[in-house]
Amino acid sequence: MRLHFFIFLSVFCGSFIQKSNAQNKLQSELKIISRAEWNAAPPVLEMIPHTPRFITIHHTGMPQKPELSIEKKLRGLQDFSQKDSKLASGKLKKAWADVPYHFYISTSGDIAEARNVNYQGDSNTDYNLDGHLLIVVEGNFNKEKVLPEQWKSLKQLVPYVSEKYNIPLSSVSGHKDQAKTTCPGDDLYRLLPLLKTDKRVRIGAERLFEEEYFKLIQGQRIGLITNHTGLLPNIEHLVDLLHENPETNLKLLFGPEHGIRGEQDTHVSDSKDKTTGLPVISLYGDTQRPTPEMLEQIDVLIFDIQDIGARYYTYIRTMLFAMEAAAESGIPYIVLDRPNPINAETVAGPIGNSFKPVLNIESLPVVHGMTIGELATMFNKEREKTGKSTAELSVVPLENYRRSFYFDETGLPWIKSSPNMLNLTTALLYPATCLLEGTNFSEGRGTLQPFELIGAPWVKAGELSELLNSYKLPGAKFSPGRFKPDSIVDGIKIYPPKFVGEETPAVEISITNRNELKPVELGIYILHALIKQYPNEFEWKEKRIDHLLKTSKVREMLNKGESPENIIGQWKEELEYFQKKREKYLLY
Q1: What is each CA distance from 261 to 56, 270, 431, in whole angstroms?
Q2: Where are the alpha helices (DSSP H) in 265-392?
Q3: Considering the entire predicted model, what is its pTM?
Q4: In whole angstroms, what is the distance from residue 259 CA to residue 418 CA?
């Protein structure tokens, strides 16, 4: 018994010492200016005690002022905070006891202790501040960029307070996640996922510069197929890194649908890259794949684009066509792998070319459950088995990746992969509601909730919500609402949506449990409900719906009044066949 106690004590103490050492290391590397050092005044009102349980990031919302010292900035902020003050909006702010935040990061990257962390902070917005440890970064990041010194300090401060106050990194959020506000600004907000884990996924684009993979491109003339998603986690673009590296020779850029910078929602023309001046050849127009003449200019072709996990998305087709072109021209093809945002386990939906070698997009189900690197591997190997030309393919794999991960579990910043793919919720519902493109009902394009809405002028939103909820579909619920589609979404002009400019009744889809959600099945139930509820108004766009599903069977069965269960059951055997094929090519 005594021996067991000493073993336990030894393990416990070892663990405690290791944890203490880690905290001491963090503390020694982090210089925090104390309240005494910036000459803080005492609180002027009583404050509410709390225990920090969350880490919430703000920006000051004011222009950066590098010319002022952090001490002067904090004394000014405290003076503003401790009295009734008029805000920029004209609204009067009542006096607070102290500086509203617990830590302040200046333009120089200096970190200062603001309010005592054992007391709740303050905010002009309506959210429960109990348990929130508030960190503010100086600047207005809807208009300004986060400075490298600020980002470095934030990356040090967050793990430090996480360790010191026993707050999980997974609790990191932005002010806008807690209240109606744009704080902490677009540029800072998109970086926050990088703070949520100490072991984030490393993508192929950053691993390309490791010795093992860099030798594949060193001294070679490079062609790169990419777009605005070709970013590393520090928001540097792969185009710029390859262009500036003295050991690489980036010669030619190829752009997919939406263009090299993701700003177009129609067919794309050839152009020049604004930053590097390099020629950009569009692969989403008259030319769908690189020609032999184009490939004569390069020694190696790289593909780096974030896919969304659904067959409808055109980036997979671009990847495949480029690989076929590389195979025919005999040049190496490198795919830089990226996560499947909607997880790499779920496989669902009908298959166009079922029970055949997986050689093309038509051989995939709607949700394929693979990464872009795995898809490339499968297409290439299946071509080899059928005697077709194959590419000299290299996949630069992910690190620290699990198939079950949704994108928000990777520790990577979300970058909308096309103008209407605004967030992970959009991506999760996309396989379901994209099917409405094959009908005269709107899928919510032209709003800030694309693919989360079902609408049309004739819809009775309450009745339709009730019918959809009666199906008791796992992971989703439906509620009545309205929307007014616009031709500009999030600053980008999109292809004109249905009912543009019209106040339109709609049903809003909310995800209640993403692990239970079955998006393709959800899409079939939605189509079934629309036909049932609106038999006189409902119209198919036959060419489009059959193209999306790669079969006319679904449309024909719905027209005959077949139940969603029977339609979904038709996919069982072909999905089992695909699953067996898929298993051979999984990299993770």
Answers
A1: 31, 13, 24
A2: 292-295, 315-329, 372-385
A3: 0.81
A4: 9
